[in-house]
């Protein structure tokens, strides 16, 4: 199983240095999220600053940009990286699209299907370029005059619900999981939908907090779980696992004015253990093996929510040492 990373940096320069360290440690792909930074811009910085590691958006928001602009960005990134780029797309939730980006969120499944179809049409070139659906495109008199690095760029979709998982299985080259993806959920709910006649690159994700003191490792990871525990969209998932009272407390704390990334004190150790990989190097290495046979890769990210930069740096250093120690 491939070990991928989601590098962190307080500056872009530091982030690129972290990607280089991941490359030296033997990581397969450096994925760039889209929350506090632009995923394509960070991917471009990593592509320019590395030589061999794969580079992917993990994930870029599919509806905050036009499908054609997303296609052109992907083509440029693939050229810049020498054919190392992977386009990871996700819908995001309704509030993020509508309130943060002024983007419509109607019919997300057919809209994402159309987005991928338009990207493929632009990538294929030709004149005219046309697609009709929930989202359409009609381009005449335009042709990209530059050679593509590859005939086709791998597209990964972030899917959580059953309809989006079925869409991923039907049209994507890969799947990239939510940050909280326990092995049992992958085994019982996700793989049965994704595993079919088409071969997908299945990428699980996990916050991985490594420290010689397991208590420190857990507490660093707790804010990640607390962030999601405060969001109503995840209440059913946590409730089914027996953590309903925790999500109620976290949501109440958020409404009372507590920062969403500083709720770790409300999260018990057993909940951290259920949704992250946290502990000593030996413990974390053993937890990673639980994904063998279930995923083609696991994307590991250091804990960063609500932590001072020096603690994130220390956590990332320990994580990359773990990646480098894997046979």
UniProtKB/TrEMBL annotation:
SUPFAM superfamilies: Bacterial luciferase-like
Positions of the Luciferase-like domain: 10-293
Keyword field: Oxidoreductase
GO molecular function: oxidoreductase activity, acting on paired donors, with incorporation or reduction of molecular oxygen
A Pfam cross-reference name: Bac_luciferase
Record carries keyword Oxidoreductase: yes
Entries under CDD domains matching the protein: Tetrahydromethanopterin_reductase
Transmembrane segments: none
Highest taxon above the source species: Bacteria
Name of the protein described by the UniProt record: Luciferase-like protein
């Amino acid at each position: 199983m491939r070990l991928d990373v989601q590098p962190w940096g307080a500056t872009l320069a530091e982030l690129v240095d972290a990607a280089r360290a991941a490359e030296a440690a033997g990581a397969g792909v450096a994925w760039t999220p889209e929350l506090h930074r632009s995923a394509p811009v960070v991917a471009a910085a990593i592509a320019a600053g590395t030589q061999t590691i794969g580079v992917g958006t993990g994930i870029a928001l599919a509806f905050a940009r036009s499908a054609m602009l997303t296609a052109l960005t992907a083509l440029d990134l693939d050229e810049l990286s020498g054919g190392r780029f992977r386009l990871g797309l996700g819908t995001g939730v309704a509030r993020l699209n509508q309130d943060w980006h002024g983007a419509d969120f109607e019919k997300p499944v057919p809209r994402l299907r159309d987005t991928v179809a338009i990207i493929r049409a632009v990538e294929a070139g030709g004149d005219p370029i046309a697609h009709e659906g929930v989202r359409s495109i009609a381009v005449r008199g335009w042709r990209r005059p530059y050679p593509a690095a590859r005939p086709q760029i791998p597209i990964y979709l972030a899917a959580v619900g059953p309809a989006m998982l079925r869409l991923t299985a039907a049209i994507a080259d890969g799947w990239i999981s939510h940050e909280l993806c326990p092995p049992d959920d992958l085994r019982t709910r996700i793989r049965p939908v994704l595993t079919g006649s088409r071969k997908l690159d299945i990428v699980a994700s996990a916050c991985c907090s490594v420290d010689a003191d397991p208590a420190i490792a857990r507490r660093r990871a707790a804010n990640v779980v607390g962030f999601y525990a405060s969001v109503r969209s995840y209440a059913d998932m946590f409730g089914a696992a027996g953590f309903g009272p925790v999500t109620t407390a976290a949501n109440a704390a958020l409404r009372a004015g507590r920062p969403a990334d500083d709720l770790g004190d409300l999260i018990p150790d057993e909940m951290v253990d259920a949704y992250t990989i946290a502990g000593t190097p030996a413990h974390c290495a053993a937890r990673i093996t639980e994904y063998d046979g279930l995923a083609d890769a696991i994307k590991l990210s250091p804990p960063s929510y609500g932590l001072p930069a020096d603690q994130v740096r220390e956590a990332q250093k320990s994580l990359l040492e773990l990646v480098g120690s894997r046979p």
